[in-house]
Amino acid sequence: MAVVVIKVLSVVFASFLVLVASADTTYNIHEIPEEIISNGYPAERHHVVTEDGYILELHRIPRGKDGSSSNRPVVFLMHGLLSSSQAFIAIGPKSGVAYNLADAGFDVWMGNARGNRLSRNHTLLNPNDPSEKFQFFNFSFEEIGMTDVAAMVDYALEVSGQSQLHYIGHSQGGTVFLVLTSMKREYNEKIKSAHLLAGVGYQDHFPNKNISQLALFTDIIYQMSLSLGIVELFPPNTTAQTNRIEPDFCAGDSRYAQICEMLGIRELMANDVNNDTEPKTEVAGASLKQVAHFGQNIRDRSFRRWNFGALKNLAVYGQLIPPKYDLSLIRTNVTMHYTVADTLLDERDVLAMAADIPNAKVRKVAKDTFLHGDFVAADDCKELVTDYIIEAMLQVEENLLQNKPTEAQAILPNGDVISKDAADVIPLGTPIEKPSQSSSTNVASNLLLKTCLVFLSMVILY
Ligand SMILES: *[C@@H]1O[C@H](CO)[C@@H](O)[C@H](O)[C@H]1NC(C)=O
Ligand SMILES: *[C@@H]1O[C@H](CO)[C@@H](O)[C@H](O)[C@H]1NC(C)=O
Ligand SMILES: *[C@@H]1O[C@H](CO)[C@@H](O)[C@H](O)[C@H]1NC(C)=O
Ligand SMILES: *[C@@H]1O[C@H](CO)[C@@H](O)[C@H](O)[C@H]1NC(C)=O
Ligand SMILES: *[C@@H]1O[C@H](CO)[C@@H](O)[C@H](O)[C@H]1NC(C)=O
Ligand SMILES: *[C@@H]1O[C@H](CO)[C@@H](O)[C@H](O)[C@H]1NC(C)=O
């Protein structure tokens, strides 16, 4: 009954790639290592089995283009919601985060969360089976953090023979870091430094009003969707691109277009990336429960565990409302990178998280139009973000060599360095404004309409 499976049971198999990839510029999401190789880098494909049976795929760039391999510190990269390890290579060797890190001397590992197209496999459960899928997709970002990331971190450390690594997480890749290091504190010891790129945690000031209004109906929408058999978003045979989301297929079936609209999936991805002239990343899928859990957190303005409802909460957690993720327990040095144009994460929430994490810094991207997805997808992410991270991680390495602590410091608004004390006194922003009467009436009638449509589509489908 209780919470989640925790420990990594076993590391099952690793299939090393020795492949010569084609020179094609288009590639299938299942050919990420081949794509990396075609760009002149070595690449490996690995699999890890979690204690609860999910088979996860990892990708590794063990060396840089020049092939030198000695003493490369490990960096682990974790993608965002509906995404995959492809996020870190999609824009190519010039600005792709994974390539830049390999060039800078790191042993680069990229994870894939359970349920995405690369980790959509299980030792016992078949995700395509009409009844087993309910159990397979019965997970949220908590399981991804506490079980998957834990297993993948342990695996990368075991294979590389190291005892610690650096962590970089984009969006939900930041959420799962916060979950893991606050819930399983021994993982703080395994992470030398963490950089969260628009890492989502607190959502007290969620910027997108459409989604936060929809979030009021999270539990109803989730239950209705389950009753329609929808447990997965963007299953393998749907062809959406991250910057070209069509709502019709989000549940893999055009009959569910209305539900999909209701879930706010399209809004979640819209305007995510600045330069969307060319779709480059395949939407890799996720469980509906992941989105529903974010919805609960937005609705409740609280970064906490899955809400089963009062009675089951009491049975599972021993209390009526779910426990919060306690960020004050995180011991790792964390830098939270954020941008003011982000439509999914408010500056005030970033500063509030940084205030609660003992060893946190914040760094605002020095470009006001930089968007949520741009951290991995924009050509200028290298100059604006990745180069800073590389320098910071190399500094940690140098300090470890010399066994000398770094200065406590924080980098703020336009990349200026200030002391952590000064970061602490930054005002956490003004209280959120109440919507005007007329706009809230509009939102309410809009919602009523949408709710009616969902009921209608349920009736039609039955
Ligand atoms: C799932 O994992 C098994 C190994 O347990 C493997 O034989 C099978 O090919 C995998 N299926 C997919 C779709 O990757
Ligand atoms: C999902 O997991 C919860 C426990 O986390 C359990 O109570 C529930 O019955 C599970 N549902 C399914 C469909 O497996
Ligand atoms: C909210 O939805 C309306 C209509 O559905 C749209 O015009 C508007 O741009 C959306 N707002 C945001 C912040 O996405
Ligand atoms: C995807 O489509 C192919 C052929 O159209 C089919 O063989 C395969 O089973 C489908 N995969 C899933 C997961 O539905
Ligand atoms: C968008 O991409 C094109 C082609 O890669 C490039 O020429 C242009 O400068 C980019 N625009 C922005 C705003 O980055
Ligand atoms: C974490 O940051 C503190 C303060 O900046 C520093 O003393 C310490 O050495 C850092 N730890 C690591 C592992 O870099």
From TrEMBL:
Q: Which residues form the Partial AB-hydrolase lipase domain?
A: 34-90
Q: Which keywords are on file for this protein?
A: Signal
Q: What residue stretch is flagged as signal peptide?
A: 1-23
Family stated for the protein in its record: Belongs to the AB hydrolase superfamily. Lipase family.
Per its record, how is this protein called by name? Partial AB-hydrolase lipase domain-containing protein
Naturally occurring in which organism (per UniProt) = Loxostege sticticalis
